[in-house]
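*** Residues and shapes ***
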Amino acid sequence: MRSLIGKKAPKFTASAVVDGNKIVNDFSLAQYEGNKYVVFFFYPMDFTFVCPTELHAFQEKLEEFEKRGVAVVGCSVDSEYSHLAWLNTPKKNGGIQGVKYPIVSDFSKSISEKFGVLAGGYSPDEDGNWVCNGLPVAYRGLFLIDKNGVVRHCVINDLPLGRSVDEALRVVDALQHFEEFGEVCPANWCKGKDALKATDEGVSDYLSNH
């Protein structure tokens, strides 16, 4: 898989559920370009076990993302109708009722494929039948996209491994600190800690153009 870092995020238009209760048929990340950062994350499937913990965790920190001018958007290979049904299911019953950020339907699996997170692939067998090698769901991919529509960070977890929402916030803070102060962020840097000056002229020129 080729990395998307430093490249424009793949474009798509798809159905999505927004505000927890409304289906829109022409959702696109392009609406945020020039205005907001985007944390775009994939999860394998609706009505599963690890996935609702992640979706609720993003909702619990949604205000923190919004304070930083970040739109949070989820995506899986389920239909918009499955998303809506899951959003109408109470948390105590394994649902994600209360989640308000957009959830995109990648029913065709084309978005997952464009972002390099599809866990399986399709190819013909010896009889000419198209079969899936692997699983036809998305890995737990997360992409931080800047206001210019460029991917600045990504992490992809295997299906059993839930993500850290706090780490997603930390990386947002690191990117915004660099953009504001021109300082680079060392290992384990957190907002409020000292960062580093990019004193080497070549490094400084490179960073200022990316």
